[in-house]
Amino acid sequence: MNKVVQLVNEWDAFERIYPDARIEDFCRYYLISQRELQPQEELFGGFVPPEPNAYLMKLMGWIVGIFSLYAQIALRDLNLPQLESFYFLNSLKYLGESRKTDLINANLFEFSTGIDILNRMTKAELISERTDPSDRRSRLVNVTPKGEEILNQCYQRLSKVGQIMFGEMPEEDKRLCIQLLRGVENRHSTYCLGAKNKTLDEIYNDMVTSRQNL
């Protein structure tokens, strides 16, 4: 079949199902549908979740777990109290001197957990702290020269972890994954900070029911 005719037929079939879809939606759909025709390796030892949301959450959680394992191996001989210390150092690198509360929120940690991490980092001389001159009740933290040096080593080593995990993945696949997931991050990164004291049903109503009613 002529390739142009085949593409038009595929678009026609897609548009019948999704009449309001955009061209870029069709492109993603077609790419994914073709990939699914290729032989797939068995995941999770065959214990695959029955629906896409659960499948995606399990896949992402599993990948994050693998990254955490490799990252701990990569950084274990550095003077880091724990892996999470890297996240705080990295945030301070780009945010600059920050209030403890703001830094903890930026990394989506519970306050008590974040304070414990920051206290360990202060003891290890990775960060310094001082009283906020504009609010004597708050403390400001910043990266020390020692913390900066260790952070640069973290970047070098974690770059190798990235190559280990995704080095064989085609660049276009990486970019597609980023495009597909960035909306999820944008939608939830700010909302979730204010959701700590909400119930699951309240969060569901905010993020699902209200969207369905649009």
Protein traits:
Arc Repressor Mutant, subunit A, mainly alpha, 9 helices, 65% helix, three-stranded antiparallel sheet, 214 residues, single chain, globular, 2 domains
Content-based structural category: mainly alpha
Top-tier CATH class of the largest domain: Mainly Alpha
Q: Largest sheet, if any?
A: 3 strands, antiparallel
Q: Over the alpha carbons, how many angstroms does the gyration radius reach?
A: 22 Å
Shape: globular
Tally of alpha and pi helices: 9
Number of strands: 3
Compute the number of structural domains: 2
Give the SSE string. Answer: HHHHEHHEEHHH
Give, in spatial order, the strands making up the sheet with the most strands: 1-3-2
Give the averaged pLDDT, no decimals: 88
Low-pLDDT residue spans: none
Distance between the termini: 42 Å
CATH topology of the largest domain, what is it called? Arc Repressor Mutant, subunit A
State the CATH architecture of the largest domain: Orthogonal Bundle
Which percent range fits the helix content? 55-70%
Strand content: 5-15%
